[in-house]
Write a structure and sequence with these properties.
Length: 232
Amino acid sequence: MPLSRKIAISAMLSVSLGLSGCRLDDYTAAELSNPVKRHPIGFASHAEALYVEVAPSGGGLSSNQHADVWRFIDRYKKESNGSLKISAPGSAAGHLATTQSVRQVEEIVRDAGIDPGAIEIVRHQRTARMGPAVKLAYDRPVAAAPTCADWHTDLGENRERLPYNDFGCTTQRNLALTVANARDLQTAQEETPRSAERRSSTWSDYTGTSKGQPPSSGGGGVTPAPAAPSVQ
């Protein structure tokens, strides 16, 4: 065998062995190319609370307080993954003053369709600043953005063509900083009831009844296309 051919074969074998040594398995390659795994978004707990003040005589909730409680419960259903705490004063006088308000709050919670197992009834010490009050509280997740700007590797010498350290980090960070409800990153929101008016309008357009045409007996209610005009 000529010497030049031996040298060429040796060079080809060296290149193939080098490439085989840098070859990654599918799992490792997928992990390196997945920003969600390499730069995960963290979550911290943030407490939300609503203090509903009541008169010492215990007259119950006003119309404005009733609306405030409804809005707070609606936010709890959208933002929280944990329990809803309803707290009343632990003293005898505070308990008597807030009894009717607590009962009305519990009615609002029940009408909102919250699972009774997710409700915690507790007591708290009365404060001079707040006076007798009913406290509603829950914890909601807050997205914590990952730290980026890791550029210590030279991308110009990336012979293995591996994803660089900050691959996808900026996207993850922007998502964490701009998301309105961090719970959406943990679990999907529940479906809202469908609009009966919109469903009726869509069905009428589909069957052709909105244009004064009777629905067809076959073919799934599809209106036949008009015939092409004859050419003289």
